[in-house]
Design a protein that fits this description.
The protein is an alpha/beta fold and 696 residues long. The protein is built from 25 helices and 31 strands.
């Protein structure tokens, strides 16, 4: 990949002398920053921008490592063949008119794939903006040359963006407003060859990149992508476009139907330590926060000190922190004592720390410096949210000495800034040079604090491991059924298989007569549950096939007679012990087109699909990942002991999830799996109902 970023020479095929054309912008940008040999190629011109222009790539005097192609789409295939004939290892095709335009364009794109296979030439694009490296001043792109007017500000965040125009928009917006610099911006377009996994791998090892931001519309090789993110030592932020799915309509199990609407994608990203963004600027803001604070104390949980000039802003900040799962720190006695030295006698010390009355008495420099010194040494504080105003109100002061104190203490500082335009912009530039990410929206400040601590917690609990799942061998007669059956496996057989795999299931038996049912009920002990198992029917409750709370022989006999009226000789009546726990979970497995086998865990029961509180784990994964993802469920109160119930045995549930993952990898004929409900009885999860769906 190095020749895409540091070529010795570049040919620009489709270079133009017309300043309004993209071919001219490419040549101008390359010439402006690239120090190697440059060869414009276009038969219409003898020279462009003072450089000799060649009629074809065949006539360029010496071989080059990179060609940038900007010619009409129908000319691109032959152009690539010509480049391959000259021994050029890589081309960036910035031309549009391929699969994004319809069938004819798709045919052209397929031809590019064929050329790649035949010749071995590496193809970046087509339909992309190319490469921008602000550190090396390499702009291999039709990006508007006005980017140079802003100095091409270098930074330590790199972008991988599937949209070309969007990548250009990011650069111009960030640099013209002085918000942040960029290390690299890589637009990959239609991904005929070079794709996000290769570029991610390159950036993980790039010394100029501290954090990686990605806008992706598709992740074809989801398994490799997640594996790379899991082992990456650098933070990754992803904005995924096009997460909605209609395919869930055809799913036969709860698990598969609940995999729609991007649930698998979001969970897979979280599982891999990726921070998911939901907006373009949010993606950039979170990325620069993570680049600034890639490593913080793993023991820190997000206890935040709020230093504000406004009581109202402090209150809203506290609300936002709680909403994001963070907390307002309790100030130590030492911190309180230090603050009392500058606070008016009438004012109590608390967090949020309202500094304005102290500023009125002592000025901004002394007040803020005293406060920053105090919170930097407070063991109860993990981070500082600093509210600033620039342009008046005695709130302009030298931040550098106080920032050094906090930096030495190893605590991240985030600033929310208000002020008049010119002063605020200068203050923002100054603070960011001191290593303080600055935001103009208060909620965004808190979002970025949360992202830094989320990444830190993931690194501490799971980070940078590449788990390997060992095959799960099942030695039970039911395995023969699974090997030879097709479609939906009934509940009883499904649970026999799960039990053989080491997953706890409810005690049960198939009964064939009323007398058999009564005898079995006594053996299981009352109360019991009776179910009718009809072939092809998954959701039995909706068909009146479930009879609960059978407390006597009469109840059992009556239920058996009722079910006997609706089943035939190929169906079954199942009697099982009634499990008494109130809390219900749903656990299952589905096979995702991008991420492969995925295990689900969520809040279950009849309202499982209505509540939609679930997480997915892409295989392979280990106990640590399972425990981490369980903590991502919203309804933790159900797991922690619901209405006086014993709290969930989390390691046991994590073991169940790992075993299901091993089943998925060991038995590819299993397409879907559903355990709903998995009832928590005395803290232990027990499978009460289950469905396994096999290949047809």
């Amino acid at each position: 990949m190095k020749f895409f970023f540091e070529p010795t020479g570049i040919a620009i095929i489709g270079a133009s002398a017309n300043a309004s054309k993209g071919g001219h912008s490419i040549l101008y940008n390359v010439k402006k920053g690239f120090k190697g040999q440059i060869y414009p190629v276009n038969p219409r011109y003898p020279e462009i921008l003072g450089l000799t222009c060649y009629p074809s790539i065949a006539e360029v005097p010496i071989p080059v490592e990179l060609a940038i192609v900007f010619v009409p789409a129908y000319l691109v295939p032959q152009t690539l063949r010509d480049c391959a004939s000259r021994g050029i290892p890589g081309v960036i095709v910035e031309s549009g008119g391929f699969a994004e335009t319809g069938e004819s364009g798709k045919a052209l794109q397929d031809e590019l794939k064929q050329i790649r296979q035949e010749t071995g030439i590496r193809i970046w694009g087509p339909n992309c903006m190319g490469v921008v490296d602000a550190v090396r001043k390499h702009v291999f792109s039709f990006l508007t040359p006005t980017v140079w007017d802003y100095g091409l500000l270098p930074g330590n965040v790199s972008l991988i963006v599937q949209s070309g125009m969007l990548a250009g928009g990011f650069l111009i917006d960030a640099m013209s407003h002085g918000v942040m610099g960029i290390s690299k911006a890589l637009s990959i377009g239609n991904k005929v060859d070079v794709e996000e996994c290769e570029l991610l791998e390159y950036l993980i090892h790039d010394p100029d990149t501290k954090a990686i931001a990605m806008y992706l519309e598709s992740i074809p090789n989801g398994t490799r992508f997640i594996s790379m993110c899991k082992t990456a030592t650098k933070p990754v932020v992803v904005l995924k476009g096009g997460k909605s799915q209609d395919g869930a309509r055809a799913a036969m199990s709860h698990t598969a139907s609940m995999a729609g609407d991007g649930a698998v994608i979001s969970s897979a990203l979280t599982q891999a330590g990726v921070i998911e963004a939901h907006d373009f600027k949010q993606m950039m803001d979170i990325s620069r926060a993570l680049a600034t604070f890639p490593d913080i104390d793993p023991r820190a949980t997000g206890r935040t000190a709020i230093l504000t000039f406004s009581g109202g802003a402090g209150i809203v900040s506290a609300d936002f922190l709680n909403e994001q799962g963070l907390s307002v720190a309790s100030l130590s006695e030492s911190t309180q004592k230090s603050l009392k030295a500058v606070f008016p006698d009438w004012m109590p010390v608390s967090n949020p720390i309202d500094l304005w009355p102290a500023v009125e008495q002592h000025g901004g420099q002394k007040t803020y410096q005293t406060a920053m010194a105090a919170v930097s040494q407070d063991p109860n504080i993990d981070a500082v949210l600093l509210h600033l105003y620039s342009g008046g109100f005695a709130l302009n002061f030298d931040m550098e000495p106080m920032m050094e104190q906090v930096r030495q203490a190893g605590k991240p500082v985030f600033a929310w800034l208000l002020g008049d335009r010119d002063h605020a912009q200068k203050t923002q530039t100054m603070l960011q040079a001191l290593g303080i990410p600055v935001y103009r929206e208060l909620f965004r400040s808190v979002e970025c604090i949360q992202a830094v601590f989320q990444r830190s917690q993931w690194m501490h609990r799971v980070g940078c491991q590449k788990p390997v799942m060992h095959p799960l061998q099942i030695d039970h007669p039911v395995l023969n059924v699974v090997k030879h059956a097709h479609g939906i496996l009934d509940e009883h057989l499904s649970k026999q298989f799960l039990c053989a795999a080491g997953i706890p299931v409810v005690a049960e038996t198939v009964v064939n007569s009323r007398e058999e049912a009564v005898t079995a009920a006594h053996e299981l002990t009352f109360p019991v549950v009776m179910k009718g198992l009809l072939q092809g029917v998954v959701h039995k409750s909706e068909h009146g096939l479930v009879h609960l709370r059978l407390n006597s022989e009469a109840d059992v006999a009556q239920a058996f007679e009722a079910l006997s009226q609706v089943i035939d000789n190929q169906d079954k009546i199942l009697l099982q012990q009634e499990v008494s726990g109130r809390a219900e979970l749903i656990v299952g497995m589905t096979r995702d087109s991008q991420f492969g086998p995925c295990v689900m865990c969520g809040i279950g029961g009849v309202l499982a699909e209505a509540i939609q509180d679930r997480v997915f784990l892409a295989t392979p994964f280990g106990m640590e990942e399972a425990l981490y993802m369980m903590d991502c469920l919203k309804f933790q109160c159900i797991l922690n002991g619901f209405r006086g119930e014993a709290p969930l045995d989390r390691p046991l549930l994590a073991d169940i999830l790992v075993r299901i993952g091993r089943i998925a990898e060991s038995y590819p004929a299993i397409l879907e799996m559903d355990i709903n409900p998995l009832i928590i009885e005395n803290g232990r999860p027990v499978a009460v109902d289950a469905t396994i769906v096999l290949q047809e």
